[in-house]
Design goal:
Radius of gyration: 20 Å
Largest sheet: none
Number of strands: 0
CATH architecture: Up-down Bundle
Structural class: mainly alpha
CATH topology: Four Helix Bundle (Hemerythrin (Met), subunit A)
Oligomer: single chain
CATH class: Mainly Alpha
Helix content: over 70%
Distance between the termini: 54 Å
Number of domains: 1
Number of helices: 8
Order of helices and strands: HHHHHHHH
């Protein structure tokens, strides 16, 4: 029986991607661990928290290597993708906090808001760099997936805060439900045209979730503004689904 050659196409693709991303992913790991250690110091977390952060970074690294086009033709990820990786170094330690459990201190919530705000500001920097250097399909997807993941993390944190019921998690889950639906309905898998409406609503969701996390915001107000944001998001998805359905039918 002939054994599989190490020169097979999938193997070569992985080797090329690893060679391309290795230094950047190593730098991203150091930045992620630094952010996690800072979270541990501010929030008084146990060492087990680092295990969760490390596991999340391994998953991110595998997804980046698996998704990176071999034809990228550069010696590294590129400036815009490096900014996105820097954002991930902030987002992943926040995500691990949802596994750790509810944050109990007022300082802890203000700290989370500050870190998430920096991650959102870096999203603007990411877009600016991408426009100047030339956007790529991989870069746009990397950025979009991280945005969606941050919304999921923040929505879970708002739920864990006890201010808003579990329905607030729909703000973060809705996009993943849409992706799952596209596996069942091929028309939903088509590419959507760029939309300022979609981008603006995404930013609004993040801002609203940060406001809800604010210690000075009472539970009633948090529930009201979170529900308004969810309605806006559902409406936006409904508009996109309608457009995709009409496009599939040639209308």
């Amino acid at each position: 029986m002939m054994s599989m050659s190490h020169d097979s196409s999938p193997y070569q693709a992985w080797r090329t991607s690893l060679h391309l991303t290795g230094p950047d992913l190593a730098g991203g790991l150091l930045a992620t661990l630094a952010a996690a250690l800072l979270n541990m110091w501010v929030l008084k977390l146990s060492g087990g928290y680092l295990v969760g952060v490390g596991a999340l970074y391994v998953v991110l690294s595998v997804l980046v290597v698996a998704s990176l086009p071999v034809s990228l033709g550069a010696a590294h990820l590129g400036a815009a993708n490096r900014v996105t990786l820097g954002r991930a170094a902030l987002v992943l330690p926040l995500a691990a906090l949802t596994i750790q459990g509810q944050v109990t201190s007022v300082i802890g919530y203000w700290w989370i808001i500050a870190v998430a705000t920096v991650a959102m500001i870096l999203d603007c920097v990411d877009g600016w760099v991408a426009r100047r250097r030339g956007p790529t399909v991989f870069g746009a997807r990397f950025d979009m997936e991280l945005d969606a993941f941050l919304l999921l993390v923040l929505s879970l944190m708002v739920w864990q805060s006890g201010k808003v019921g579990p329905w607030v998690a729909l703000i973060g889950v809705l996009r993943y439900l849409f992706v799952a639906a596209s596996w069942l309905q091929s028309s939903l898998a088509a590419e959507l045209p760029p939309s300022w409406r979609r981008q603006t609503i995404c930013v609004v969701q993040g801002v609203v979730l940060l406001v809800c996390l604010g210690p000075i915001i009472p539970a009633t107000m948090a529930s009201i503004i979170a529900f308004a944001a969810l309605v806006t998001l559902v409406t936006s998805f409904a508009v996109d689904v309608h457009w995709l359905s009409r496009s599939a039918n040639g209308l």
